[in-house]
Design brief:
Blueprint (H helix, E strand, L loop, with lengths): L3 E5 L3 H14 L4 E5 L2 H10 L4 E4 L8 H9 L9 E5 L4 H9 L4 E4 L4 H46 L4 E2 L3 E8 L7 E8 L2 E9 L3 H21 L4 H15 L11 E9 L2 E7 L5 E4 L4 E4 L18 E4 L5 E5 L15 H10 L1 H6 L1 H8 L15 E8 L1
């Protein structure tokens, strides 16, 4: 394979000797020469260099200045640099390596070093650079694929919208490009069904399971639409049949909250999910729906329970995933109590500006940013008309 190697040394004889030694082992490579630091930097800018053999003691710019300049530039920082210097004290070796040199050897070279050590060091450096470029290329490809998956996952999520009976406000923030949170809202006759779920783990595997959860939910409410408990029990049985329940870390288990708005009631069942909150306009009260249940996909024949709460015009229902508690810095919520107090204080905002209320939940302040969560975050706010 052909490589481009830059030899930077102010002594002509040193450059010629280095080139002659390397040509015996790397015959197809291209060699560039620089007699000072400035010339070395110009060559790097103009050519695609795979390796630099750098002398420390050069005019104009010395080797340290070249080393620092290249390693501080994102375009050139990955190019491997082997320092070749007459300075043999430990301080100069340490300084070179700390500033980004991949390797170091001292002048003059012994016969064995010229024959064996130098070619090996150069080959190892070139191999290291090839592997690094390959990893970077694969990383960029994976990132592109994740971005595409992120776009697809967002398309699959229901958006904020106004319906005849309710207004829906939604938000979804994966901690990486894609995540394991899922929510959905489906109108079935006169009923409004919804689910919010959080799959164990993150990334591609969790995102695939979350897509499965969405399909399962839509299928189950068609055939088990008497109550949310039946929907959860059926989903659990299907997941247990499909996957090994003993392997908890296979990313097929998930928490879930299933609700059904039927006339003036919210019928709901919880499978280990964070407690939703109901805002009662008439009573000016905030109610947390405290109900526990088994995580879906863990226990065979798990049983769930239906609960009911009355809802009226102007009321609101907030469902969310536990990522809301995972702010990396200056999070709004440290625990359930802090969240309950916060939403209670913002009670009137639900009436005047529900969108702003939802936005504020995702910020460390009322005007903060929403891009520093350590876990996936999903939430839905239903406002009853």
């Amino acid at each position: 394979m052909s490589y481009s190697i830059l030899i930077a040394d102010d002594m002509f004889v040193n450059r010629m000797l280095m080139k002659a030694l390397l040509q015996k082992k790397l015959k197809d490579s291209i060699y560039y020469e620089a007699k000072d630091g400035n010339e070395a930097l110009e060559i790097v800018k103009e050519r695609e260099i795979d390796l630099i053999i750098l002398d420390l003691m050069m005019p104009e710019k010395d080797g340290y200045e070249v080393l620092i300049a290249l390693k501080s530039n994102p375009l050139y920082k990955d190019i491997p640099i082997i320092v070749n210097s007459a300075l043999t004290d430990i301080e100069n070796i340490e300084k070179s390596l700390q500033n980004g040199a991949l390797d170091y050897f001292a002048k003059p070279l012994s016969p064995d070093e010229m024959k064996i050590v130098l070619p090996l060091k150069v080959k190892n450096a070139l191999k290291h650079y090839e592997q690094k470029k390959l990893i970077k290329k694969l990383s960029e490809k994976i990132k592109d694929e994740l971005n595409n998956a992120h776009l697809f996952q967002n398309i699959m999520m229901p958006k904020s919208k106004c319906l005849d009976k309710i207004d829906i406000y939604t938000r979804y923030l994966p901690s990486i490009e894609i995540g394991g949170d899922i929510f959905d809202c489906v109108i079935l006759g006169d009923d409004i069904w919804f689910i919010i779920a959080d799959v164990v783990g993150h990334g591609i595997a969790a995102a695939m399971v979350s897509s499965m959860v969405k399909v399962l939910f839509n299928d189950c409410i068609k055939y088990h639409n008497n109550s949310p408990k039946e929907v959860l029990e059926n989903m659990n049985n299907i997941v247990i049949d499909m996957f090994d329940p003993s392997d908890y870390f296979n990313h097929t288990a998930f928490t879930a909250f299933v609700g059904c708005i039927r006339k003036d009631k919210l019928i709901y069942s919880n499978a280990g999910h964070p407690y939703p909150i109901v805002f009662e306009k008439k009573e000016e009260r905030v109610q947390m729906l405290t109900q526990n249940g088994f995580i879906v996909g863990i226990f065979e024949n798990a049983k769930y329970e239906n609960k009911y709460t009355k809802i009226e015009k102007g009321d609101a229902i907030l469902v969310y995933t536990d990522g809301l508690f995972s702010k990396r810095k200056n999070g709004v919520f440290e625990d359930w109590t802090s969240m309950y107090n916060y939403v209670s204080e913002k009670f009137n905002l639900i009436e005047t500006d529900p969108k702003k209320f939802v936005d504020n939940l995702l910020c460390s302040s009322d005007e903060g940013n929403t891009k520093d969560f350590a876990d996936d975050v999903a939430l839905m706010l239903f406002k009853i008309k």
